Amino acid sequence: MTTNILEMRSITKTFPGVKALSNVTLDVGRGEVHAICGENGAGKSTLMKVLSGVYPHGTYTGDIVFEDEVVEFKSISDSEAKGIVIIHQELALSPYLSIAENIFLNNEQKGALGLIDWNRTNLEAAKLLARVGLKENPTTRIMDIGVGKQQLVEIAKALSKRVKLLILDEPTAALNDDDSDHLLDLILHLKGQGITSIIISHKLNEIKKVSDSVTVIRDGRAIETIAKVDVTEERIIKDMVGRDLEHRYPDHTPDIGSEILRVEDWTAFHPQDPTRVMVDHVNLNVRSGEIVGIAGLMGAGRTEFAMSLFGRSYGSRITGRVFKRGVEIKTRTVTEAIDNGIAYATEDRKTYGLNLIEDIKRNISMAALHRLVKKGLVNDNEEYRVANEYRTSMNIKAPSVLAKTGKLSGGNQQKVVLSKWIYSDPDVLILDEPTRGIDVGAKYEIYTIINKLAAAGKGVIVISSELPELLGICDRIYTLAEGAITGEFPIAIATPETLIKHMTMEKAR
Amino acid sequence: MSDQNATPVQGGLVNPSENKATSWLSHVLTDLGKNGIFIALILVVVLFTILTDGILLRPQNISNLIVQNGYILVLAIGMVMVIVAGHIDLSVGSVAAFVGACSGVFAVQWGLPWWLAIIMSLAIGALVGVWQGFWIAYVGIPAFIVTLAGMLIFRGLALVVLGNSNIGSFPAEYRALGNGFLTDVFGEFDLDPLTLGVGAIAVIALIIQQVRTRLGRAKYGQEVEPLVWFVIKLVLITAGLGFFAYALASYKGIPVTLIVLAVLVLIYGVVMNRTVFGRHIYAIGGNRHAAELSGIKNRRVDFYLFVNMGILAALAGLIFTARLNLAGPKAGDGFELEAISAAFIGGAAVQGGIGTVGGAIIGGLIIGVLNNGMSILGIGIEWQQAVKGLVLLLAVAFDVYNKRRSGGH
């Protein structure tokens, strides 16, 4: 018996016109946590889909050896039967079913007559929940618990299948820091129980924290596997992008002009619970050419503030005043906000930002279609030209502007969203988590775009949970906690420590 | 894999290193793939032409095909718009019956001039649309529920208006909407010169429009199809239209229904593709949230969509009533299902965001040819129903299969 639980040998997988994986070899040691990282589209997910049987044997070339045996999975149930369980980025839970029902979905605990034994179902579920450290009643519905806990339910579900190799695809992407830490601890805990894990992640610090070795994949090839002792952020980044990335943030020389937008006393309440204050007397301003950051933990009210400001897209009982260049403006509807030169790029591109079944061209023109209208008709040739300009200037990687946005990678989708808002010709852009779920190379490009917007005299507000990012690109940073502004720091005096201190400040009651 | 960075894999793009013949062929194949529904129509026509020994394509039958299906096609236009926005309308058959009954009251019982009766009937259709649009757009009740209720409400109201009897017969000008022909303006000929003239003008207009589009695209550096294929397509379309015009000319001339329909197709084709309103319908159907956050007024678009549907349902009711010369309680029965089928056979997506007016018309024509062909063959109504159901299922299944093959997720 070798020390490797899994050996993938010379895996090659081609799609029509694309070689997604090229001769990839991956060895995973028994009982280790093995991280796989790479830019979006590098082939990580494809590799895991090959492993788990989503792409059945025969659609790829190469061999998979699991526990010293060559395996040929025809479907996910084949791989699960062997103890390989994959947890996808988008969780596969049914929101209206209980935790226990979800855990035993398609693996129902049956009693006499083949009927479901609910007592046993809930009892077994409770045992599994204890193993993953989740203190919830097994009969609670999935929709009533947060994403972090849902992730734990997924792991409990995997445990119920007697998992030997657990694959987690970007498990912390949607989690806050506490939930992420808990999850990573759990992975280490399971490792103690002999469960091997493969974790796909963008977050270099968490990779350093939990993994015993790291394999970097780039352009469908395995670049190298690095042992824990040799892991450094620089080395991983270099492998991922194929070049040294000395500067993760582009140089930015601020040329700050006069105040362009000021918000006074902005207050908004929860849409369903109008007694719960979500945004609490926020005062802030942004000047032309300035990049202003809003730092806050999840639930601090960052998105709530931005969306309530942007055409009252969130919340109830909204009060406060907005001034543009000193003149009061109204932003009661999205149209009014756009007409007043405000743009808001959402943190959730796929749900709120893009029409995924439509092409790049029509997505870019969506917020400012009126600019293309001549004699009552949309000039679609002009639309094509405009979209093509953005494709070039924003470096959107797609065969043409007629490509559907649903087929683009996260970074390119984000560039389409930004193009859409830039084309609406705003004076102030509010960018909510502009680099979430985007690989390192594309992040740099997004930062460059943000700099260009500032250089063109626009005011940019960046909302982000990544402090290094805010510190890297902003001229001034506000901290937000429990819906209220708790501090304001010019970049010269902002440090991660002071920001975190103010982000976690409780408001005086 | 969710990403295909910089790798041109879309069928429409051609690798320059390939030789000319394969690039040409790939264009033809992509076009055929895109126009699968059109090919299906041609296949159905060919099939029934053979089965009926050519009766299907006789001038009189071609003319009948248009007149018999006109009201379904009118409904299909409005229906595909509603479906693209992610809704459905189950009430159109009942609304058609209700408006038909009202028009009977106006034109026959009250003896109002035919034009006033038609305008008032269309206004009632608009009011019905306002009613349903209000519940759907501003109260937020799903269209399925609102129009299911509407289906019952307006069927009931139609019976109330008719008072347990039929209303007929209508003035000649009114009847022309369903039965009339534009003919013999220049005297009597074997082949009606007006019809041929209009056919020729239509062909020329189509060619000019196609050439202008092509030149416009080329000017903006967009890819255009190979010239040979472009010309072949134009020749085929010209031949088809020419045959159609010839058939009409050798029978009674241009049906009034066809004129109404042609005008509607032109107008709504432009609305859906080239106006802000049309684009907003696609944006809403594709992603309602994203549309809202892009400043699109979803509610207003939804509202006007149903007002529009109400007017078109009214128009369909008028055409049907005019054709039968009778406003009866069974009018419009099952129209909604035929219109919905037409939209889906024509490539509309159940979840919204996808669909075209042209597709819905072709879908409606496929249903029409099936109805007509099977009737000629003497196949009973029971089998006709079953076959139409099967065709709907297969058409959508084919569409789903096609999308999967082309690499959608």
Automatic annotation (TrEMBL), chain A:
Membrane topology category: Peripheral membrane protein
Superkingdom assignment: Bacteria
Keyword Repeat: yes
GO MF term (any one): ATP binding
Keywords: ATP-binding, Cell membrane, Membrane, Nucleotide-binding, Repeat, Sugar transport, Translocase, Transport
Gene3D superfamilies: P-loop containing nucleotide triphosphate hydrolases
GO CC annotations, alphabetized: plasma membrane
Keyword Repeat assigned: yes
Compartment(s) of residence: Cell membrane
SMART domains: AAA (SM00382)
Domain ABC transporter: 6-244, 261-507
Cited InterPro entries: AAA+_ATPase, ABC_carbohydrate_import_ATPase, ABC_transporter-like_ATP-bd, ABC_transporter-like_CS, L-arabinose_ABC_transporter, P-loop_NTPase
PANTHER family reported for this sequence: CARBOHYDRATE TRANSPORT ATP-BINDING PROTEIN MG119-RELATED, XYLOSE IMPORT ATP-BINDING PROTEIN XYLG
Protein name: ATP-binding cassette domain-containing protein
From TrEMBL, chain B:
Protein name: Xylose transport system permease protein XylH
Primary residence: membrane
GO molecular function, one term: transmembrane transporter activity
Location(s) in or outside the cell: Cell membrane
Membrane topology recorded in Swiss-Prot or TrEMBL: Multi-pass membrane protein
Keyword Cell membrane on entry: yes
InterPro entries tied to this protein: ABC_transp_permease
Entry keyword set: Cell inner membrane, Cell membrane, Membrane, Sugar transport, Transmembrane, Transmembrane helix, Transport
Domain of life: Bacteria
Described function: Part of the binding-protein-dependent transport system for D-xylose. Probably responsible for the translocation of the substrate across the membrane.
GO cellular component: plasma membrane
Signal peptide: none
Transmembrane segments: 37-57, 69-88, 112-131, 138-162, 194-215, 227-248, 254-271, 303-322, 342-370
Species for this entry: Cryobacterium suzukii
Keyword Protease (UniProt): no
